[in-house]
Fold:
Amino acid sequence: MPESTPGLEVRNLTKRFGNIVAVNDVSFEIASGEFFSLLGPSGSGKTTMLRMIGGLETPDAGDIFLEGKKITFLPPEKRDVNIVFQNYALFPHLNVYDNVAFGPRRRKWPEDKIRREVTALLEMVHLSGYEEKYPRQLSGGEKQRVALIRALILKPKLLLLDEPLGALDLKIRQALQLELANIQYEVGITFIYVTHDQSEALTMADRIAVMNKGRILQVGTPKEIYEHPVNRFVANFIGNTNLFEGVVKEIAGQDVKVDVPGLMELWGIASENHVAQLRIGQRIAVSVRPEKMRLSRVKPQKPGYNLVQGVVDDLIYLGVSTEFLVRLPNDQVVRVFAQNISREDELWSITWDEPVWVYWRPERSLVLADEAPT
Amino acid sequence: MKALRTPKFWFAFYTYAVMAILIYMPIVILITFSFNDSTIMSLPWSGFTTKWYAKILARPDLLKSLWNSLWVALIVTAVSLVLGVLAANAMARYRYKGRIFFTGYISIPFVMPWLILGIALLVFFTRVGIQLSLFTVILAHISFDVPLVAVLVASRLHQFDPNLEAAARDLGCGPLEAFRLVTFPIIAPAIIAAGILAFNWSFDAFVVTHFVIGQQVTFPIWVWSALRFPKNLPIINAVSSIIVVVEMGLIFLAEWIRRRGAGGEEESILF
Ligand SMILES: Nc1ncnc2c1ncn2[C@@H]1O[C@H](COP(=O)(O)OP(=O)(O)OP(=O)(O)O)[C@@H](O)[C@H]1O
Ligand SMILES: [Mg+2]
Structure:
């Protein structure tokens, strides 16, 4: 097989339930061994997407290729793909050992090989000695790990995980996130990891696909998605951002001058794809991340910076940083993060109702499309 | 435990005690007098005997009625299990028009007086022109046992996570194997429990049976006619004692199986 064949390719996949288009003409490719995350709000079609790849749902249109082989209509038991379900779906009438051994037994592995593999996997997820327990006797985190190795034991080419940590509390979730990332690295299996938690996707995934309303809006590394969101939805969904609504005044290369009525004129940049579609006078939004903005008591002497004055509405001390909520003249409130570096810092003493200057470099403000540019 | 002795506790305690006495006393009296060496069911106690039990075997009419009840109940149970499980499946998994009529049918044995059901069936059989016999008894019993099975199995299927079947498919089962290895074992306890209860309902049915049996005899019908002759009373006591013990055993078994199958997650409805 040539090097360039992707681990998984999804082409124009569509699935309807009555009037609802759960997955709408979605295409993407995943490399072998990649940790790929599908990120989107509830109802965006993530589970439906996974179920089609796993063979539990038949697409209305489009195709799925696993290592170059078309599997669109193959029944689930014939696919080299396994699923970790959203609510674990452990078999309640079987103990932990028999749950994990379920797949291998269908494949008629010899019993001594099954015993070896199950024992090794239980050890890997720190559940040695749990063989005889039943699912109802396990905690959420333990169930989750059993569900994981039950799917992993068959060494599928692709493992689909549907919000595997969604039902767990924060502490366990963070521990298991690390464990999962390590396991994926060790076994080298391609993972598609569904989540609606953006921080989970950012920390774990090699690449992220952001979904909304059945469509994929952007695919990229966590850094690309965070630093260069293609549209308003992505910018808002991944991390926090400040949005300025305005009108295009001037276009110079990728630099765009935007008039924000009642507030300021500012400079931002648009992506190469997007800038070609921009027109003077068009209504657009500009996104600036809170940590890209800076604060000052005195008017900063920074030619070329975007600059606006406001009043501190609220401030939240977060230990490593402080979050300032600054009310601008147009009554819009922007969020600014400042590192708490030292007590001598001029920001240290800033307090409620104080007038401050907010400023940032033009290339930190991104001109966003409403739809992803094509 | 002192903290528990609140007025609420005593209320619950007395309610339970009164219920227990109301339910168990007649059974205790029945069984006690089945060992009394007298044809009259009253004190003073005239001595211990097992002769009434021996006499059961000397009554071919009684044995015949027991035999009839037994095989009627077995056929009814088998048919009701098949139809009831299919009905439960339809109820739990699909939404369709006309569901309301179906739900209406399913609730018949729980809300309709047996007398009305018996008369309705009698009218139906005579209008359609079916000769009254044990066959009509079987049809009548099936009509109320199917809903019983359907309700018990559907409540189990309702809690059944369809993802379990999906997981089985994902791990390499074909559709039939997924049902055999996952769905069936999980709902089997409910099916067995429903079978035992359906058997009891059929075996005990008197009112409905009385209307549709014609010239034949089942055990409850035999008891009814035998009661007219006081000398039969001790034998009735004896055979009833046996049946009470066997049926209570079956019901406890059914509930035990049902609870075990639910993985201890389901509250018992009996104890
Ligand atoms: N079997 C089904 N029948 C009808 N509609 C369905 C079915 N499955 C999903 N849908 C609909 O398709 C849309 C996408 O659902 P899906 O379960 O894929 O979302 P999701 O992104 O996984 O959401 P969540 O984060 O809540 O799990 C929803 O509007 C849902 O109501
Ligand atoms: Mg989902």
Notes: Residues 8-232 of chain A form a domain with the Rossmann fold fold (CATH 3.40.50.300).
